[in-house]
User: What shape does this take?
Amino acid sequence: MRVNSSLGSSREVELAFETALAELCGFTVRTIVRTPAQMAELSSYGTALAAPWEGELRRYVSFLQEDPGDDFAATMNDWDLPGERAHVHGREVYFWLAHPSHQGKLTNARIERGGVVATTRDWKVVAALGERWGT
Assistant: This one.
């Protein structure tokens, strides 16, 4: 969803959404915001990444709410299970699966066990948003 705001930062927008959703739902809903320019940049960056293997791969991006720590980034960058690879760049984890996602060990829940708030999207969606909202 594209939202215009007079708030000064993405974090302020996230907090405003979280407050509104808590009032509406009665529980905390964590939010992650990217600007159109950020979406265009991360889509461009992801498009340029070389696939780790040949063949049909499923690609995903996990958006992190905050900058990951060095230990988290190292864990993700060293992820090397059969048919699974990951790459951290900024507040995103780009990853590839050579099997259906329901068979993968690298999931949004696994990523969040690294102490981060994350949401994962299929690469096709991310690329389309980057193209649509790019500046």
User: Anything to note?
Assistant: The chain has two domains: 1-33, 35-133.
